[in-house]
Amino acid sequence: MLKEKTNAEISLEPMFPHQPQPPGDHDVPTGQRIMLVRNRSVTLHRELNRFLSLLLLFGMPIWLYAEVVQIDNSELRALMQDGVPLIDVRTAPEWKETGIIEGSHLITFFDEYGRYDLPKWTESLHQVVDRDQPFALICAVGSRTNAITHHLSGKMGYKKVYNVKKGILHWIEENKPTVTVGGITKTDR
């Protein structure tokens, strides 16, 4: 027979961990540093999936997301040629590791430790686009931007938000070009 847990027996983990301490000042070999960034990214993706699940669970009907459009790389390229801005929400270490898509606007949403400041980020976003103007968001694999685009469209009233569904890693897998943050060609794909 199954025993139901009482409220005292149920512990809820915080949705986002309290701001973890940054790594020490010691030198970390490049391979380990990349693994640390990837591990943080995996943890962040899990937390975002939990966050999005809670949003859906607690009353954000799916019809509110009608203006979020999932796009692939060819659709992104066409939109950018039509002048639709691309916002890269990744962190500076991620930009340095992979490069960026030329013409991207770099506005980090979550920092390396999963922290974010929505009012500050929105203020930076408004320097690039208005609420009524279409724009696209990109991250590493599309998880972070999926949560962000749904929030912008469903809760903040943005009219047309595109999510690059497989992120910049898929862009790179398809041998599309990236540039370094300074604008120098990183790869000639």
What is the CATH topology classification name? Answer: Oxidized Rhodanese, domain 1
- Helical run tally: 6
Mean pLDDT: 76
Please indicate the percent range of residues in DSSP E strands (runs of 2 or more). Answer: 5-15%
Spatial extent as radius of gyration: 18 Å
Helix vs. strand class: alpha/beta
The CATH architecture can be named as 3-Layer(aba) Sandwich
How many domain regions? 1
Q: What name goes with the CATH superfamily?
A: Rhodanese-like domain
Structural write-up:
This protein has 189 residues and is α/β, with parallel strands linked by helices. It has a single domain (30-173), classed as Oxidized Rhodanese, domain 1 (3-Layer(aba) Sandwich). Helix content is 38%, strand content 9%. The protein contains six helices and five strands; from the N terminus they run αβαβαβαβαβα. The protein has helices at 30-57, 73-81, 92-98, 118-126, 143-154, 167-173; strands at residues 68-71, 86-88, 105-106, 135-138, 161-164. It has a five-stranded parallel sheet with strand order 1-5-4-2-3. The longest helix has 28 residues, at 30-57. Mean pLDDT is 76; it is low at 1-19 and 62-66.
Topology:
Elements: H1 30-57, E1 68-71, H2 73-81, E2 86-88, H3 92-98, E3 105-106, H4 118-126, E4 135-138, H5 143-154, E5 161-164, H6 167-173
Parallel strand pairs: 1-5, 2-3, 2-4, 4-5
